[in-house]
Amino acid sequence: MFKDFLDKLLAPAPAILPDEDARLALTALLVRLARSDNAYADVERDRIDRILGARFGLDRGAVQILREQGEGLEAEAPDTVRFTRAIKDAVPYQERSGVVESLWQVALADGQRDDGEDALIRLAANLLGVNDVDSAKARQRAETQL
After folding, report:
1. Fewer Cβ close by (within 10 Å): the C or N end of the chain?
2. Burial class, 100, CB count within 10 angstroms (exposed 0-12 / middle 13-18 / buried 19+)
């Protein structure tokens, strides 16, 4: 399964991914962020699960399966650019700041700001085409929710 998905992501001119693949790309990006500080904590997994459940209307079992698939894909995928391109192609601009907000929610879930996580969020926001103002507003919303 991951090989086919990676082949789609690694294609020179990939087509727009189906919704299920875009979900998986977002999940893998959230996992990549949580793992970026070398401490993938339970609180981060829980936050990812809540984000996926709320965003996609999934029950606990479906959320757990999606997160586990995202963990597997994240471990095999070579870079972050492919995930963000898949998300950017599948998600309208007005909803992409919500993706950045989700990234901030995961980054802040453990109560610690990490330079690596901050850098990855800045990169992802840029690659998603989310401007600095909208990215800052997404961070503020995430901080308020936590």
Report:
1. N
2. buried
